Amino acid sequence: MILHIADLRLKLDGHTIVSAANLSADPGDVVGVVGPNGSGKSTLLKSIYRALRPAAGRVIHEGVDLWKLDARSSARRISALPQEGAGDLEFTAAEVVLQGRTPYKRMFEQDGPGDWNIAADCLIRVGMFGEAHRSFATLSGGEKQRVLLARALAQQAPVLVLDEPTNHLDIAAQLDLLELVHDAGLTTIMAVHDLNHAAAHCDRVYVMAEGRIVAQGPPREVLTPGLIEDVFRATAVTVDNPITGLPQFLFSPLTREGLRPEAGPGQGTDR
User: Fold this and answer.
1) What SS3 state is found at 255?
2) pTM of the full predicted structure?
3) Mapping DSSP to helix (H, G, I), strand (E, B) and coil, where does residue 151 land?
């Protein structure tokens, strides 16, 4: 494995938000972290990209505790696309991507030809090279996410952390971004709000509820109608997507009595 979270406990304002979390990712895996709002997904990811120091436990990359490294060394191992993004500061798209080269430069060192070449390559990979000199603030939501992904790729870290990267994007932009993430070939840890995205794009999923990991494994095995009812408080019918063959979920509210309807074609009843 390339990344391992061991017995992690995380606190905010003195309150435990995540308890006894364990998570592993092998090289090239896309690992999804799913759960209801407030379950601790974003908090868990913050400990990986060093935005929140663990109260207990370790975040280990290739045998090294990330929290024992300096910020520059850690940033050469882990890149991130957090929910906060880059704001709307007056940088060009290229200047935003070049920020990903910071871990490789001394203080006040200027961007060199090698940095510009890497930034250009990353902009090409995300389809934004033609917008390199546009102000970041003028880009659409989907274009901004592409540029921020390019910034993370320019960091050239082997592990990529994404916190709900498709939020506020239209359907085409969501699918494009997830394909770009998959094609990057990096070990990826991704908080996912949409269970259908998790089923389609993740090799493994970890399900969180009330600050704990309650299930983990391949999406088809883990995201059962019973688990979805218990954790997400919704009724789910599982079908195979006729285009991809992957599982797809159809949702409806729980009945007033909290019972699932009788199983129909393609609907599992396992918990």
Assistant:
1) coil
2) 0.89
3) helix
